[in-house]
Amino acid sequence: MGTIAELFESGQKSTDKGMFNNLVMLARVDGKIDDSEVKLLSRIASRLSLTKEQVSEVINNPNSYPMIPPTSNEDRFDRYIQFTQMMVIDGEVDPSEENFLHKYGITLGFTEEQLSEYTPAILKDAIQGVDKRYILERFI
Length: 140
Fold this sequence. Notes:
- The chain is mostly helical and 140 residues long.
- The chain has helices spanning 4-7, 11-28, 35-47, 52-60, 73-88, 95-107, 112-127, 132-139.
- 69% of the residues lie in helices and 0% in strands.
- Helix 2 crosses helix 4 (52-60).
């Protein structure tokens, strides 16, 4: 059922938890969450103003937080870039992570054609450590 605080949680906070949950799922897709992924998850949680308790709640109850796709084009790209950065942060790109990233792109509303165009460039930039806002500026 959830706590009283959860019942009165803002729509934005619920959306943020859903996005964070998807990042956790991506980090887990290769069977483990390594130290570099934990650090990135912590930074993202901080940017989303998620408390340690909320982060634990999301990690321990992943099915409670569905993905709510963003409505603006900028927010869609922002989330896709964050996901891509999470995928490459450990220096390895697992095929299951690429598959999950592709599914996430479709869920965000990108077409197959768009993903074929955007993903290689975003992946390349993420691997090279290009800052998210510079990547974002290229696509919006």
